[in-house]
Design goal:
The chain is of the alpha/beta class and 804 residues long. Helices cover 48% and strands 13% of the residues. It contains 32 helices and 24 strands. β14 (390-393), α16 and β15 (412-417) form a beta-alpha-beta unit. The termini are far apart.
């Protein structure tokens, strides 16, 4: 019996934290814990045994930070020793499973960072291959704060996690680290994370670390509302603080077990612990929860797609799919593709988002270009500046796979049809990468003339998809919209097909609405009328031009009339006092986003992360304004607006970083102008940043660096795994006013505390700000920091108070 079978029959429990127990056994500040797999194997095995004796079933290997970036040639020995240590404990105890633990690499992936997506996949595949060969029973991907890195790890587990004994893929469990607002570091919410993981086909999903069990209950409630997959919850033992140089937590075993009982009764299938939880926490949890019945989640049957930050559900309201990123009938767009002018494509995407699109269709098919390469590049660039889900629209199978592989979320896939050959090409891709597939109701016999014929093809598509493990909720049928000018009954057939998809199949539908009017004058008149009729017949997704005022007026008025716009609030926000175009109205009052007003050209470009456009706009501004005036009245206010949006939770990390990159390009133009006139920009002050000894996770530090530099600070980046002595020596040598320290892991916070101690002795004038996933304001106070900065903008604000 494997773990997936056993977890249906009885409740299984994970172990607790490894780091604090290693510290108790003598792990020194800054020492790499994974090396203990080789140097102290008996201690690692003993820790596993302690958890097994406490009633845990699943042992997490001591490989959280093990990857090729950190260990190089040592990696294979360390990973295999970790699995062997856990297996030895399981054999001695007579029960249990070994979970190969994969933690974050500590790097941000491109375009936000410097780690390529495929390099991330390769790093994880290496660890998985070693773990599988050593005999791990499952793969646990944990503490993930970036949905893109999460996807890389899951793909690695799927591709390298094939058991040599059974030939089957090892089960994959994946947990993420949400903040108190229910967001990942890079902006994903609960719904979009679940969509991604369920699309990829993980066996168990859930949450771990960052929060205690009490704080996780609200997030768990959201998870259970949308997840059809069993949920795992591994909280910390409350919130951390430092006592006598050791990290302690504020929830004891008895209280932890009590709250975990509540969590199990809410619907969590598997529970355990993370930072600060020892064998007593697990023993108490097992005692309270082992006899509680396992409540397997019901299938939610949600038709949902996602981007890196948001999910779009095909439900009551018709979803608007913007059709403008498509070369058909667009000479300028075709030329942009030939010239590899991605900025032009990005502007098309931004305009559609501003005008109300929920999803962007992406089609780059031209005979004279390398479509797979261009499609991959366009998908990456669009997702860097736009947070809407994308529809991957291509008939090129290679282009489809390359796009789906790098797509950060669960995509809409356009398309498959009833032809056997096409289904055999596309459905394996959907099963591997996840997605909702548009099913065209045509097959080898062509387009059926009747609604009955189209419904028959739709049934065939749904049934074939099921043989690949793809549920009917992940198929949206296209009833096929034929031009009414050549077939007077074309519209009637399409509308009947939509009704029957809804009423007979209980399915979802989509249409390319504007096809109805080919060959007719004043096409928007026909299009908008047909659009309204189609929505009345149950249309779930409309591929239209959201820049068309006629189409969007039909849409918003239909929603108001059909009780899909409570209190007509959306309609009123857009059309109350309208003086300009629909797009201007949506940008100014009806659509939340980065921009609070249209502002000047430079502000919009910087806030939207359009690098080339920002450079062009600033170049124009410099013709009429002094460089310092542009900085103070245009650039800094734009960055401030993005920062405020980030703090409010309306702007997410990718948008923050891309706007910073756009500003960086604009600053280069200003810098050149100032040097030409002999008036260089003065730096506000010098700041040292470092990730502390023993920690290679430098995501937070690198983000802080980008923003501080944009606010005119000189940043000395000492890198990662930096000894306290090095940081202190640099602070004394340069007499800096401020040092920023970062740490992700509990085991490296003592290094942070020691660094602060040395700074107090040798550089008492220095202020110290700290940040990292394991830290809280109280924890920062107990280790002697001057400021706890929960995110990058908080670091900027603190620097302003210290240096100004």
């Amino acid at each position: 019996m494997n773990i997936l079978q056993e977890m249906r029959q009885r409740r299984l429990f994970f172990d607790g934290g490894m780091g604090s127990l290693l510290q108790a056994k003598g792990l020194r500040a800054g020492e790499l814990p994974e090396r203990w797999n080789v140097t102290h194997p008996e201690e690692i095995t003993r820790i596993h045994l302690m958890y097994l004796e406490a009633g845990a079933d699943i042992m997490t290997t001591n490989t959280f930070g093990a990857n090729g970036l950190k260990y190089g040639d040592e990696l294979e020995e360390i990973v295999k020793a970790a699995v062997e240590n856990a297996k030895k404990a399981v054999q001695e105890a007579g029960h249990g499973y070994v979970a190969l633990d994969l933690g974050p690499t500590g790097k941000l992936l491109k375009p936000l960072g410097d780690l390529k997506f495929e390099d991330a996949v390769s790093l994880y595949k290496e660890v998985v291959s070693y773990g599988v060969s050593a005999g791990a029973d499952l793969v646990l991907i944990e503490t993930m704060s970036d949905s893109y890195e999460l996807k890389a790890a899951v793909l690695a587990a799927k591709e390298a996690g094939i058991s040599p004994e059974t030939g089957e893929r090892l089960p994959i469990f994946a947990t993420v680290i949400y903040d108190e607002k229910g967001k990942l570091l890079t902006g994903a919410d609960v719904s979009s994370t679940v969509a991604l993981l369920e699309g990829l086909g993980v066996d168990v999903l859930g949450i771990n670390c960052g929060l205690g069990p009490v704080q996780m209950k609200g997030i768990l409630k959201e998870l259970l509302q949308v997840s059809s997959t069993p949920v795992l919850v591994n909280p910390n033992a409350g919130l951390p603080r430092s006592e006598g140089g050791k990290t302690v937590y504020d929830i004891d075993a008895a209280e932890f077990g009590q709250v975990m009982e509540e969590i199990v009764k809410m619907g969590a299938v598997i529970v355990g612990g993370c930072c600060g939880t020892g064998p007593e926490h697990i023993r108490e949890t097992v005692m309270r929860c082992k006899k509680l019945p396992v409540n397997w989640p019901e299938k939610k049957r949600r038709t949902v797609i996602s981007s890196y930050s948001q999910a779009v559900v095909f439900d009551r309201r018709t979803v608007i799919i913007g059709e403008r990123i498509n070369p058909t009938g667009k000479p300028k767009f075709k030329q942009a593709l030939r010239d590899n002018d991605l900025e032009y494509i990005l502007r098309e995407g931004v305009n559609q988002q501003d005008n109300g699109a929920d999803v962007l269709d992406v089609n780059v098919g031209l005979p004279e270009i390398d479509e797979p390469s261009v499609m991959e590049a366009v998908v990456k660039e669009l997702q860097a500046v736009i947070d809407l889900p994308l529809q991957i629209d291509t008939s090129d199978v290679e282009a489809m796979e390359r796009a789906l592989r790098v797509y950060n979320g669960k995509a809409l896939i356009n398309s498959v049809n009833g032809k056997k050959e096409v289904m055999e090409q596309i459905f394996p891709l959907v099963a591997k990468y996840g997605g909702v597939t548009v099913g065209l109701c045509l097959d080898e016999d062509g387009i059926p003339e009747t609604a009955e014929g189209r419904i028959a093809v739709g049934r065939k598509i749904i049934e074939t998809a099921a043989s690949y493990g793809i549920g009917p909720e992940d198929i949206i049928l296209d009833g096929l919209c034929m031009t009414v000018s050549s077939d007077n009954k074309g519209a009637l057939t399409t509308l009947e097909t939509l009704r029957r998809i809804r009423d007979e199949l209980g399915g979802k539908s989509v249409l390319g609405v504007s096809n109805i009017s080919f060959g007719l004058p004043q096409r928007e008149i026909i299009n908008s009328a047909f659009f309204t009729m189609a929505m009345e017949c149950g249309l779930n997704g409309a591929i239209i031009n959201p820049n068309s005022e006629a189409m969007m007026r039909a849409y918003y008025s239909f929603n108001a009339l059909m009780d899909r716009d409570p209190q007509c609030s959306r309609y009123i926000s857009i059309y109350s006092g309208q003086t300009g175009s629909l797009g201007q109205t949506i940008r100014q009052g009806g659509k939340e986003g980065v921009q609070e007003s249209t502002g000047s050209a430079s502000l919009g470009c910087i806030e939207r992360g359009l690098k080339e456009a920002a450079v062009e706009a600033v170049t124009l501004l410099l013709k009429d304004k002094e460089a310092l005036e542009v900085i103070n009245t245009e650039m800094i206010p734009a960055l401030d607006r993005v920062g405020k949006g980030f703090e409010k939770g309306t702007v997410f990390l990718p948008q923050l970083l891309m706007s910073a990159e756009a500003a960086k390009g604009a600053f280069e133009v200003i810098k050149a102008e100032m040097e030409k006139t002999g008036r260089g920009q003065e730096k506000k002050g010098v700041i040292i940043l470092a990730t502390v000894k023993g920690d290679i996770h430098d995501i937070g530090k690198n983000i802080v660096k980008v923003l501080l530099e944009n606010y005119s600070y000189e940043v000395i980046d000492l890198g990662k795994d930096v000894p306290p002595e090095t940081i202190t020596e640099e602070a004394v040598k340069r007499h800096v006013p401020l040092v920023g320290l970062s740490a992700l892991m509990t085991t490296t916070v003592p290094s942070m505390e020691e660094t602060i101690r040395q700074l107090r002795q040798k550089a008492p004038w220095v202020k110290v700000m700290v940040g990292g996933a394991v830290l809280t304001r109280e924890y920062a106070d107990t280790i002697g920091a001057d400021a706890y900065c929960k995110d990058a903008m908080a670091s900027v604000h603190y620097a302003e108070t210290v240096i100004g």
